Amino acid sequence: MRIVQIPLLRDNYAYLIVCEKTNNAAIVDPSEAGPILSKVKEEKVTLRAILNTHHHHDHTGGNPGLLDRWTLQVYGYAADKERIPGLTHPLNDGDEVRIGELTGKVLFIPGHTRGHIAYLFENKLFCGDTL
Predict the structure, then answer these.
(1) What's 111's domain CATH number?
(2) Overall pTM > 0.85
(3) What angle do CA 33, 81, 16 make, to 5 degrees?
(4) Is the pLDDT of residue 72 over 90?
(5) Between the CA atoms of 18, 78, 115 and 31, what dihedral angle is there, to the nearest 10 degrees?
(6) Chain-centroid distance, C-alpha 129
């Protein structure tokens, strides 16, 4: 697994999770599309999915722009299905997400929002705005 940090807005980051065996990738919390489009091209990966930790715009604002460019699976908390742009795969605690040959576990971690989730891949936790 390779992780590429992408600076967004003035003080946010998104994370590109890459399966090095398949070159498939997912983006975690895209607040805007432009820098992600550039980084995907630069890294020469195939973007397959968006992983949203919660519904706030600074974590989902890039969903529409990415979906304009690619057909992607969009993951997020099931109860926020009306609040996450383009959600195709509603998730709950204990569900799994695959990126190529990588498998991540979904953890329900309310606190920052009532519908906050995290993604655990190997020993790396993508937890959005929850500390």
Answers:
(1) 3.60.15.10
(2) yes
(3) 35
(4) yes
(5) 40
(6) 13
At a CB cut-off of 8 Å and minimum separation 6, what does 122 contact? 1, 102
Number of independent structural domains in the chain? 1
Residue with tokens 């600074």: 58
For residues 32 and 62, the answer to whether their CB atoms sit within 8 Å is: yes
- Predicted confidence (pLDDT) per residue in 76-130, tens digit: 999 999 999 999 999 999 999 999 999 999 999 998 888 899 999 999 999 999 8
- Distance between first and last Cα of the chain: 23
**Best CA proximity match to 100, nearest among 45, 61, 60:** 45
Domain hosting residue 72, numbered range: 2-126
